[in-house]
Amino acid sequence: MSPSLIKEAFLKTKKENRPALITFTVAGDNSKNKSLEILKSISQYADICELGFPHNAPIGDGDQIQTSSHRAIKNGIKISDVFSIAKKFKEIKKTKPIILMGYYNIIYQYGENNFLNDCNKSKVDGLIIVDLPFPENIKFANKCKKKKKKFIQLISPLTSHLRLKHIIKHSHDMIYYISMLSTTGGKLKISSKKILERYSKIKNLSKLKKVVIGFGITEKTIESLKKADGLVVGSAICKEITDSIKKRQNIVTNVMNVVKRLKNKIK
């Protein structure tokens, strides 16, 4: 069986001796068409693209991503639009992995089977469900596996050693390490050295699984964390969208330039 596009992305970055750059944007920010344009432009530099479901109560998201979600919801973005954006993106960028990120109540209301069927139709590669933790997510993660969708498990600085071993055992191609106890977009409250120390302990338990670091990663901090398998940047991108709207500048170009600079810092 051929490796997933997510695994292939990590194989490529390993050959290039650098971490994978993983971007996050909210679907439909600041419009359905603009959101697709942004995805296409940043995919030139991003190794994996995360696309967030806009949500009116995003418990894990800080101000920047909440603002992006608010704009998308205000513009009337629905779940069907998120799948439409993903599908159109994959028609153009067939080999670029795309991961949908959101909250379980959206999936629950939509119906797990319907949701995963639409993931298949849209060529989505993986899922991050913020509020569906282990072990409650085992059943849904197994459904994802059967549909050839990678379910990305989340771990935090408070995850115990025993729990960590169980999560790693049940994880698919990628594990998301939340670097600090905060919502997204907060300033790093601990040093990069401390984050990498914890990261190394996780990697010692999961030699074959790729572990990416998210939360608090910006142009200023990304270079200091480039020993990781991958680095996730979301709030810095959402902030650039907000700033570009306020300044009435070209959103697509400005966001692309941010991602280009991020990529250059980890080469």
- The CATH architecture classification is Alpha-Beta Barrel
User: Which oligomeric state applies?
Assistant: single chain
The CATH superfamily name is Aldolase class I
Q: What average pLDDT do the residues reach?
A: 93
Number of helices: 11
- Identify the strand order in the major beta sheet: 5-4-3-2-1-9-8-7-6
- Which class in CATH terms? Alpha Beta
Question: Element order, helices and strands?
Answer: HEHEHHEHHEHEEHEHEEHH
Q: What is the approximate shape?
A: globular
Proportion of β residues? Answer: 5-15%
Count of β-strands: 9
Indicate the percent of residues in helices.
40-55%
| Poorly predicted tracts of residues | none
Class inferred from helices and paired strands: alpha/beta
Based on CA atoms alone, the radius of gyration comes out at 17 Å
Question: How many structural domains are formed by the residues?
Answer: 1
Measured distance between first and last alpha carbons: 30 Å
Largest sheet: 9 strands, parallel
How would you explain this protein's 3D organization?
With 267 residues, the chain is an alpha/beta fold. The chain has one domain: TIM Barrel (Alpha-Beta Barrel), CATH 3.20.20.70. Helices cover 47% and strands 15% of the residues. The chain contains eleven helices and nine strands. The protein has helices at residues 5-15, 32-42, 63-74, 79-92, 104-110, 112-121, 138-146, 161-170, 192-205, 235-247, 251-265; strands at residues 20-26, 48-52, 98-102, 126-129, 150-151, 153-155, 174-178, 210-214, 230-233. Helix 2 (32-42) runs parallel beside helix 11. The longest helix has 15 residues, at 251-265. It is globular and about 50 Å long. The two termini are 30 Å apart.
